[in-house]
Amino acid sequence: MDHLSLSPGSVAATLGQRSRAAVWHPCTRLRPDDHAVPLAIVRGEGPWLHDADGQRYFDATSSWWVNLFGHANPRINAALAGQLETLEHVMLAGCTHAPAVELAERLSALTGGALGNVFYASDGASAVEIALKMSFHYWRNTGLPAKREFVCLRHGYHGETVGALAVTDVEIFRDAYDALIRRAHVVMSPDARQARRGESAADVAARALAELEALLRERAGAIAALIVEPLVQGAAGMAMHDPSYLDGVRALCGRYRVHLIADEIAVGCGRTGTFFAWEQSRGTEAPLPAHAWPDFLCLSKGISGGYLPLSLVLSRPEIQRAFVADELARSFLHSHSYTGNPLACRAALATLDLFAQDDVLARNRDRAQWLADGMAGLAADARVRHVRQRGLIWAADVGDDVAGADFAARFHHAARARELLVRPIGNTLYVMPPYVFDAAQARWLGERMLATLDDVTAGKEVRHAA
């Protein structure tokens, strides 16, 4: 029996129906005649998730890009169990604890000390808002209160809280709340898919830099910061750009006295091939000099290994120094109740231990090749275009003439029938699995993705039924 045609009495269907009635699910369209129920997952192991009826699914998108080392990782489990025996939480206002201190020190060390003074929060949008507020407040504290505008890239995504939406240029998330938002300047994305005949990705990056410089030349006195997603713009459909763009924006922001915010919430923690995507800004993995780093760097998602909500902002030491004063109004009073939660910090420390002890970045170079080899059949298919890969992110676009209406939803449901959990972005197919797959699983993944595309374009996709 097709396990997506769930019988009304199945365990998965029952739990899904209860969830539909009680839980308002994120990023989910509500239709009056739609009886689809969410997939009821009860356990995970490695790259696999298992539903309430015992069916398995390969977690091809790392559960919204967060899971790095597989589900129920025994080493992260052990670290959390040990932390549970000592301290589950304490307020970080006026108190501290070892996991928060050690995590901040180790992350700063990974930047060669260029960034430090970690400010903790719980989700990516909060980290973005912290960076925006810090930048604005820094310029006010240093006597430049007119610098209060922000710049973002076309189709960039930085979260869905009201402040983060100001620098998010994805209409479906932003436009309903436009009246609440203070809009940012939007400049050309360096998305390499925009290449004109004869242009390289570096040429596209150069055009984008020229447009940015024109804005900065005119408005730098009023602009506080530019925010970018280094190397890959996720919600834009895994839009990838040449690393030279990052080096270029660093130079421009320095020249025009504008802060540079690197949103590495989705692309950090080894996903693009280096621990920080920004490490590739000069086209090399050699250690960056201090001046080449951004002024702020936001992390979330994978930093806790996919276990617990945690986000943070790393900033240059001179940023914090501007807040040192007797006047309370000069202090940065932003706060979250669970800031620097010990359990989340311990999960992050266990994640960093795995990177260090297992030489993960080197092994991921092998995995990136396995992924490329495994997806080769799909990459060669005439129905896809703009095939691209950066580290362990692989993507390709399906043409409108092939995709048809509601392609993402149809592909998602059809893939479940082939033991895959994937969630296309519009017409963009992408995979970014946990760092625990082998060459055989990469081949299996590619074969299943291609077979699913066959199902969808032939009209054979399975409709999820209650």
Question: How would you sum up this structure in a few lines?
Answer:
The chain has 16 helices and 16 strands. With 466 residues, it is α/β, with parallel strands linked by helices.
Largest beta sheet, briefly? 7 strands, mixed
What is the total tally of β strands?
A: 16
- Rg is 22 Å
- CATH class group of the largest domain: Alpha Beta
Q: What is the terminal-to-terminal distance?
A: 15 Å
Order of strands, main sheet, comes to 4-12-11-10-7-5-6
CATH topology of the largest domain: Aspartate Aminotransferase, domain 2
Uncertain ranges = 1-5
* Tally of distinct domains: 2
| 3D shape | globular
Strand content range? 15-25%
Fourth CATH level, the homologous superfamily of the largest domain: Type I PLP-dependent aspartate aminotransferase-like (Major domain)
The mean pLDDT is 94
- Helix count, per DSSP? 16
Architecture of the largest domain, CATH level 2? 3-Layer(aba) Sandwich
Category from helices, strands and their pairing: alpha/beta
Indicate the percent of residues in helices: 25-40%
